[in-house]
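Dear all,

This email documents one entry for the complex benchmark we are building for the journal club exercise. For each entry we list the sequence lines for every component of the assembly. Then comes the predicted three-dimensional structure of the complex as a token string, followed by one or two observations. Please use this as the template for your own entries, and keep the labels exactly as they appear.
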Amino acid sequence: MMGFATAKATEAVARQPEASGKINSILLMGLALAESTAIYAFVIALIIATKI
Amino acid sequence: MDGLDLSNVPFDLIINILNIIVFYLIIRLLVYKPVKKFLSARRERIEKEQKTLDEASKELESRKEAYEAQMEEAEHRSKELLHQSREKADRNATEILNAARAEADKLIADANLNIATREKEAINGMKDDVVELSVSIASKLIARNLNDEDNKRLAADFFEKELGSMKQG
Amino acid sequence: MEITTADIIKLAAAAVLSVGALAGYFISRAACGVDPGNRKKKRLKKLFFVLIILAGWFIAGTVFDILVGGSKGIVVEFEMFSERVDLFGISFAETSLIMWGVTGVVLVLALLFRLFAVPRFREDSPTGLQNVMELAVEFFDNHTRTNVHGRTGNLSSYLFALGILMFGCACAELFGLRAPTSDITVTLSMSLITFFLINWYGIRNKRLSGRLKGLASPSPVIFPMRIVSDVAVPVSLACRLFGNMLGGLIVMELLKGAAGGYAFGIAPVAGLYFNLFHPLIQIYIFVTLSLTFINEACE
């Protein structure tokens, strides 16, 4: 999923290299948000694990 | 461990929230306000400079406009003056022409009058000469010494009639 | 402190290596000084320099290994809640004390900044420290103004303070302490303040009735679902920050655990990513998401 986002971002930069700064920040924010679902799973796993 | 030990959580939460709030208030006082003051002062200064610059350029524009308007008016006026002077010159020319023509007519009329009077004088003179000549011829023909006045009178009457009929004829 | 034969062999190898590296470095430096501009000799000198550093690390690692007792394998002990400390009869969490420490240090630095750096501020073109502070303040200010379309008041100063606090916590991890942001109580307190701020600004820009009406906006049927999603916002913010920081902490612990005494120079350098760069991104995301939710409540 993050691979898709990066691919689209590089395509956008190739189309218009002047907007590369904005696209960079948007990409970083999108990646962090996409990673948050996995982080939720990690936290729940921790809660379950320490509940032994 | 049976479950998570959640008994300490609310107390920790309160302590942390208090910590954050105190930190926020002090940082706002020490760091945020001075820097913000500098930023806004700089922005105001730039705006003021920009405004004076705008005003100066606007004044320049208005002055330029006034100058151009003045130039246009001067040109217009000069054209008008030229036009007027040309008209006046034309009028003068026609006036002079008319005056000259009137004078020439007057001269011609005068001359005509002169000629008429000279003619009359000439005819009168001729009449006197012819009267004298006829008297002398008549005296020579008749060989007698005529009474001047009578004969002159007779001859004058005769020639008057003749001349009148000649003039009429 | 038991010294095994493997240790003695390692020490001997380390000693030989370091002596050879030093000798080679000095010889190549002398040879390079004779005729300057020779590329090959310069490269040789650099190579020996690197070898010196490696040898030094190796020696230090071996010494620490002997002292500490080798790596205990890849076993990581951690707990979700940090350990507690007894102070004046009340048990505090360790991370609360670290948080107080971070707060104190940053406040002292701020005091010094206010007393010494501010009077020297220049009006026209800023340089150095003034430039950095102005950049940071301007960043938060612009972000707040572009993302929230309503009256915000002091919001940008709160987010500025929060950003500095989180950055301080991330820096504290460089010293080996457990970062306060890797404790769920700390992140939960931060996101609870954000939740309170969302409602505060929402009620201030539209009345209470307006805010409730906004929750029931497309149709009143989904009112409970909107309430649930509104409650889920601070929980998600807290979990995101906590999970990211804890993940970084676990990876660093694993690295230190696996390397044993040899983690002498490597761990801080490798920890630079997890303890400085990653928290910066998380700060940016936390702040931007808070602003987005406040904007959604103010619309």
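Observations: The domain at 2-49 of chain A is CATH 1.20.20.10 (F1FO ATP Synthase). Chain A touches chain B through four residues (CB under 8 Å).
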